[in-house]
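Title: Prediction job returns without error message
Component: structure pipeline
Severity: low
Priority: P3
Assignee: unassigned

Description:
Job completed but the reporter wants confirmation the result is attached to the right record. Sequence as submitted:
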Amino acid sequence: MGAAIRRVAGTIVRAPLTGRNRRELMYCGFGGVAGLAGFWITVVLLLSGLTISVSVIGTVFGLVLITMTLRVSRRLGSLHRRLLKRMLGRQVEAPPPFQPGTGILNRVDRRLRDRPAWRAVWYALIKLPVSAVQLYTVMLTAFGLADLAYPAIWLLFRNHHGGTLSPLVAVVPVPFGGNIRVGSWLGAFPAALAGAACVVAAAWLARGINAADGRLVRGLLGPSSMAERVSELERTRALAVDDSAAALRRVERDLHDGAQMRLAALAMNLGMAREKLGDDDQAGDSAADNRASDNRATVRELIDAAQRNAVDALADLRDLARGIHPPVLDNGLASALITLAASSAIPATVSADIGIRPAPAIESIAYFCAAELIANATKHSYANQIKINIHTERAGVLVLEVSDDGIGGADAGRGSGLSGLAQRASTVDGRINVSSPAGGPTMVTVELPLRA
């Protein structure tokens, strides 16, 4: 028990003499000054921006000040991470870099919604009491070292006879006391003891406040929180959806402008070659004429077969291109659905009320969902009529409703294609609701965002 107490006491007393204590105090000094300066810079800029932006005339200038505050807060956060790494060796990863976007309004909007920058603002505000404790720790160490030197100071500068000297005053910062008056060399030892206590207390206070500050840096200036990670994943997924839609559109155009045109030209050339051969209805008398006639017949059969294959390949290629990106979508989703309804085996009507045009990827998903639902109704519903209604129910949501007056009983779990549609819609956070009681009617509602 005694050995354990001595070991703990030795650890406490030796703390000020370690290299770690020097680094902790250096971080307290630099970090405290940086935190104090960052607090006032952030408060002045942010309050100025908010105050000016309240007035109609100063809105623009106020927004500029707020965006400047957010930029400065990111820089200050980077400074605190570097200080923590350089002086205490604690690595904190930086948050994702700011994505400015294009256009002035888009840049301002993204800057105002920059979560890491706002978390850096919170850090700058919370840092004020932390900086006060850090600077107090440095001050406590400085006064403690000065008090420790009082016995030596007395011997060097006060150890002489003659005259009456005013007593020395040893300052002991709160909460340890106040002032200790030193009137003799022996009286300097209580001041030195108080100074030693201050130095030891400052060493452990520095460790504690720096540990708390490190937690704040990791929590507010470090990598994104879970919500920001989800937001970043949503952003990258939206980019992937848009990129894939654009890539499929390029493939469709390449097929339409390249392979389809060449196949069409091949079919035409084969037809012209067949016409050049002419009709071989006359039989020749000589063996040579018979052989030539047979050769022409054989060539004509080969040309006919090649032309049929070219026409079939062209039809397959057109179906493939329409499956990738229907060209009718170039005129808008409403026109594409009207064209789709016109080709339905069951009479179909379309009503559309779309305010803002959806993104190309969303239009493609909505179109293929409608096509699959019409195909399902044709195969299974025994319906007499199909109704297609597409509209924007609320801001940012596109609603597609496909209903029929058939026998009902549609179930997404029985391989009717509805599960595949639900999967396709879920890639952009869409959803499908199926209402199909036995005996009908059936209504399938697809909700999609206007932007991925």
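Comment from assignee: result matches the submitted record. Residues 226-277 form the longest helix (52 residues).
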